[in-house]
């Protein structure tokens, strides 16, 4: 596989997800609820993103129309209309402006359908093209499809607005993005040289090693078998995240610009092994996460299936699965286009043996 860093595409996806920074405090409390992670994130980073959220506050009403849950406007649009291959932000936005009602509606319905049917990780979005056709001209079927979505009533109402007026809503969203471009550019300008430099570094490192450097670079969170393509994006919006996106027309790995520093701090911590072990047992001490692991052991293969069994939302299960991967209790594996979670018995056995050693007196340390 050839790995390639895409600078323009990195900027485009950061721009269209930029409004999500408005909810930074909410996202931080949800994603970083374990003190283990907070120990390695600089206070300056929290202050920076909280300042961004403050700058976006005047646009809150408009942002909330288009950014919510897991199906925000960018997610719905990029399902079929990739931002890859454009030479500027303006050229991509102009492409979106040129799309017809039917083209936009098909993209929205494709994303909804994929989310409901657990086919969201299909490598080629065209695979569900025919399936969505039967919903295109039938409003009742669209409503039935929407009702199956794992979202609250307010979010469903917002999504229904997109389905009723795809062209109008898309143009209004583009207008919002264009209004935010000066603010975004002010922030991006400060990060651009670092983004370009780091993107070229990741590209070279992966190509020189034929992808074998990936586990070392990500503290064993990723390996090359998990990647659907060699497309690399670098993000300052999700600066501490590693995101494998296989649901869009063009799949990619989106790499947060601060991930390397974050993982290096963790790896160099003197008590890292003990903190890893404590984190593992904290996850096992959470009843829902324990039940999630049990269900995976019993053969459950999807977040939807687990959510139904435990009577919680699919988003809640996805959140728990991400934490279990981060703590290395679960391993993400890929078989062709299908992703699955496997229990990491090696780390369980190692943690158990280390715990017994810790609690046994007169052990040679």
How do the helices and strands line up, and which of them pair or pack?
Layout: E1 4-5, H1 7-17, H2 24-31, H3 35-38, H4 43-56, H5 60-66, H6 73-78, H7 89-98, H8 101-117, H9 129-133, H10 139-147, H11 153-164, H12 166-208, H13 214-217, E2 231-235, E3 242-245, E4 252-256, H14 259-268, H15 272-284, H16 287-297, H17 303-310, H18 314-326, E5 330-335, E6 338-343, H19 345-359
Parallel strand pairs: 1-2, 2-4
Antiparallel strand pairs: 3-4, 5-6
Helix pairs in contact: 1-12, 10-11, 11-12, 17-18
Q: How would you portray this structure in words?
A:
Helices cover 60% and strands 8% of the residues. By secondary structure, the protein is α/β, with parallel strands linked by helices. The protein has two domains: 14-193, no CATH class; 270-359, Winged helix-like DNA-binding domain superfamily/Winged helix DNA-binding domain (Arc Repressor Mutant, subunit A), CATH 1.10.10.10. A four-stranded mixed β-sheet has the order 1-2-4-3, sandwiched between helices. Helix 1 (7-17) crosses helix 12 (166-208), helix 10 (139-147) runs antiparallel to helix 11 and helix 17 crosses helix 18. It is globular, with a radius of gyration of 21 Å. Keywords: DNA-binding, Transcription, Transcription regulation. Residues 269-363 form the HTH arsR-type domain. It comes from Acetoanaerobium noterae. GO terms for molecular function: DNA binding; DNA-binding transcription factor activity.
Number of domains: 2
User: Which range best describes the helical content: under 10%, 10-25%, 25-40%, 40-55%, 55-70% or over 70%?
Assistant: 55-70%
In terms of quaternary structure, the protein is single chain
Summing up helix and strand content along with how strands pair, one would put the structural category as: alpha/beta
- Compute the gyration radius: what is it? 21 Å
Element pattern in H and E: EHHHHHHHHHHHHHEEEHHHHHEEH
Strand content: 5-15%
Which overall shape is indicated by the principal axes computed on the Cα atoms?
globular
- Span of the ends, CA to CA: 44 Å
Number of helices: 19
Look at the structure and give the mean pLDDT. 85
Q: Low-confidence runs (pLDDT<50, min 5 residues)?
A: 27-36, 120-124
Strand order of the largest sheet: 1-2-4-3
How many E strands?
6
């Amino acid at each position: 596989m050839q790995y390639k860093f895409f600078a323009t595409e990195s900027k485009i996806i950061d721009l269209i997800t930029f409004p999500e920074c408005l909810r930074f405090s909410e996202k931080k409390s949800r994603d970083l609820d374990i003190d283990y992670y907070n120990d390695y994130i600089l206070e300056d980073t929290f202050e920076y993103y909280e300042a961004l959220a403050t700058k976006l506050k005047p646009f809150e009403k408009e942002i909330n129309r288009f950014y919510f849950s897991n199906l925000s406007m960018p997610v719905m649009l990029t399902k079929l209309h990739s931002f890859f291959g454009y030479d500027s932000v303006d050229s991509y936005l102009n492409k979106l402006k040129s799309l017809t009602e039917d083209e936009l509606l098909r993209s929205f319905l494709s994303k909804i359908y994929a989310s409901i049917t657990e086919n969201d990780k299909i490598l080629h979005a065209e695979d569900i093209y025919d399936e969505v056709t039967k919903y295109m001209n039938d409003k009742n079927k669209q409503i039935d499809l929407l009702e199956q979505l794992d979202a609250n009533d307010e979010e469903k109402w917002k999504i229904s607005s997109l389905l009723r007026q795809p062209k109008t809503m898309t143009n209004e969203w583009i207008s919002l993005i264009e209004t935010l471009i000066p603010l975004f550019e002010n922030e991006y300008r400060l990060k651009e040289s670092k983004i370009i430099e780091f993107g070229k570094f990741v590209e070279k490192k992966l190509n020189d090693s034929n992808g074998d450097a990936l586990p070392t670079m990500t503290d064993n969170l990723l390996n090359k078998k998990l990647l659907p393509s060699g497309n690399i994006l670098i993000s300052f919006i999700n600066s501490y995240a590693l995101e494998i996106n296989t649901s869009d027309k063009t799949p990619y790995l989106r790499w947060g610009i601060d991930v390397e520093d974050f993982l290096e701090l963790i790896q160099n911590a003197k008590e890292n092994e003990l903190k890893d072990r404590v984190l593992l047992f904290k996850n096992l001490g959470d009843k829902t996460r324990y039940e999630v692991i049990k269900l995976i052991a019993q053969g459950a293969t999807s977040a939807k299936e687990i959510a139904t069994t435990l009577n919680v939302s699919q988003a809640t299960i996805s959140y728990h699965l991400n934490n279990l991967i981060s703590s290395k209790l679960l391993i993400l594996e890929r078989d062709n286009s299908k992703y699955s979670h496997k229990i990491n018995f090696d780390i369980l056995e190692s943690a158990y043996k280390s715990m017994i050693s810790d609690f046994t007196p007169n052990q040679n340390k």
